[in-house]
Amino acid sequence: MRKKFIVLLLLIIIFVLNLPSASFADRKDSVLIVYSQTKEEQIKDVRILETLVGQFRDDYKIIEDADIGQEN
């Protein structure tokens, strides 16, 4: 009986710890990648990176370091 109580208590604790809190429910994370372009060949690497990130995330933005001060 005591083992069943301990197992039940542990399951309840695990369930409560895995519930998302209200502060995280409304939060939307996004990814910002800033790159510095010194050669024309690097733009190919940026496109490869964009393809890879696009496989995992929908909300990402890739900008050049010269565009950081400008608003889009």
Walk me through what this model shows:
The structure is a single chain. The protein is α+β, with helices and mostly antiparallel strands and 72 residues long. It is 50% helix and 14% strand. The mean pLDDT is 76.
Structure characteristics:
72 residues, alpha+beta, two-stranded parallel ribbon, 3 helices
Secondary-structure blueprint of this entry?
Elements: H1 2-18, H2 22-25, E1 31-35, H3 42-56, E2 60-64
Parallel strand pairs: 1-2
Q: How would you briefly describe this protein structure?
A:
The chain has 3 helices and 2 strands; from the N terminus they run ααβαβ. The protein has 72 residues and is of the alpha+beta class.
Overall mean confidence score, pLDDT: 76
Order of helices and strands: HHEHE
Structural class given helices, strands, pairing?
alpha+beta
Q: What integer value in Å does the Rg equal?
A: 22 Å
Largest sheet: 2 strands, parallel
> Unreliable segments (pLDDT under 50, ≥5 consecutive)?
none
Sum up the overall morphology in one term. Answer: elongated
Could you estimate the helical fraction of the residues in percent? 40-55%
Approximately how much beta-strand content do the residues carry?
5-15%
Number of contiguous helices = 3
The counted number of beta strands is 2
Spatially, the strands of the biggest sheet line up as 1-2
C-alpha termini separation: 64 Å
